[in-house]
Design goal:
Elements lengths: L3 H17 L11 H15 L6 H8 L3 H8 L2 H16 L13 H16 L22 H22 L5 H23 L4 H12 L16
Keywords: DNA-binding, Transcription, Transcription regulation
GO molecular function, one term: DNA binding
Protein name: TetR family transcriptional regulator
């Protein structure tokens, strides 16, 4: 039986050599887009600090080296997830408001669409942008600033859109009010508010919006 021992050793050495030459990194079946979708859902539901690195790799079905190779680090993955969420929600496109015949109608379209999206069963409850990183550890200050900047950009976009009906000064004040309502509804949705309850909030909020511009006129300052 002893003559077999050298043969076995040679076989093991060959196997180990082959294994050492296998390329490292992501498996061939890795789907980056699907992984980003999964990460977005996790961050949306639990927040950035509520999802550990180990939970991410487990949910994505990849090891830490593969995650780093695909996305960089956890913070970079979070930013990509935010971009994906913003695109999905149309956060940079308010053109649907242009069909409104009055200022109040335009705001109603925005707030009612927000209310539906916050409790859409196809997604997670709440809003990843409106409530993301509101409270966070100092180590994540850069991500908190990123979220604050994204919210500021949305307010600026809304201000520009509202100038179709009112002056820039009025539009600036109104956009701050409307986005505050949207953020409040996002928190209430996380607290368990149903769509009909959010609709009550929308109806009350609209009472503060003037309805004296029945004909759409672009009053933006040039």
């Amino acid at each position: 039986m002893t003559p077999l021992i050298p043969a076995v050793k040679r076989c093991l050495m060959i196997v180990m050599e082959i294994a050492s030459k296998r390329p490292s990194g992501r498996p061939r079946s890795f789907d980056r887009d699907a992984a980003l979708e999964t990460a977005m859902r996790l961050f949306w539901k639990y927040g950035y600090e509520g999802v550990s690195f180990q939970q991410l790799t487990a949910a994505l079905g990849i090891g830490a080296p593969s995650l780093y190779a695909a996305f960089g680090n956890k913070g970079a993955l979070y930013r990509e997830a935010l971009d994906r969420y913003a695109n999905m929600r149309g956060a940079s496109d308010l053109s649907f408001m242009e069909a409104a015949c009055s200022l109040r109608e335009a705001v109603r379209l925005l707030l009612e669409g927000t209310a539906r999206g916050l409790v859409d069963p196809a997604g997670e409850v709440g809003c990843m942008l409106n409530t993301g990183m509101i409270a966070s550890h100092p180590d994540h200050e850069d991500l908190a600033r990123d979220l604050a900047q994204r919210r500021a950009q949305f307010r600026a976009l809304l201000t520009d859109t509202l100038q179709r009906w009112v002056s820039r000064e009025h539009a600036t004040r109104l956009s701050s009010y409307v986005t505050a309502v949207m953020q409040g509804m996002a928190i209430q949705a996380r607290d368990g508010f149903r769509q009909e309850q959010l609709q009550v909030v929308v109806d009350e909020a609209l009472k503060a919006v003037p309805d004296d511009s029945h004909t759409r006129t672009d009053v933006r300052q040039k």
